[in-house]
Amino acid sequence: MLEETQKIVIDVIDYGKGFKQQDLPNSNSRGLNNMRYRAEQIGADLIIASSEHGTQIRLVMAY
User: Fold this and answer.
1) Of 15, 29, 44, 57, which one is least surrounded by beta carbons within 10 A?
2) % pLDDT > 70, the chain
């Protein structure tokens, strides 16, 4: 028997110039770290992908 988990997926997409995390002025960016921490607190996965074509932040949480 296959059990299917329902998920909530939230995408935030910005079509700007993107960034490389190592190029941020403070590699311990509070904004990104706070997002990761809060996702962890609610049992969600946070995926951050960025390139010269923009940035996508995806939150995935089972319910």
Assistant:
1) 15
2) 79
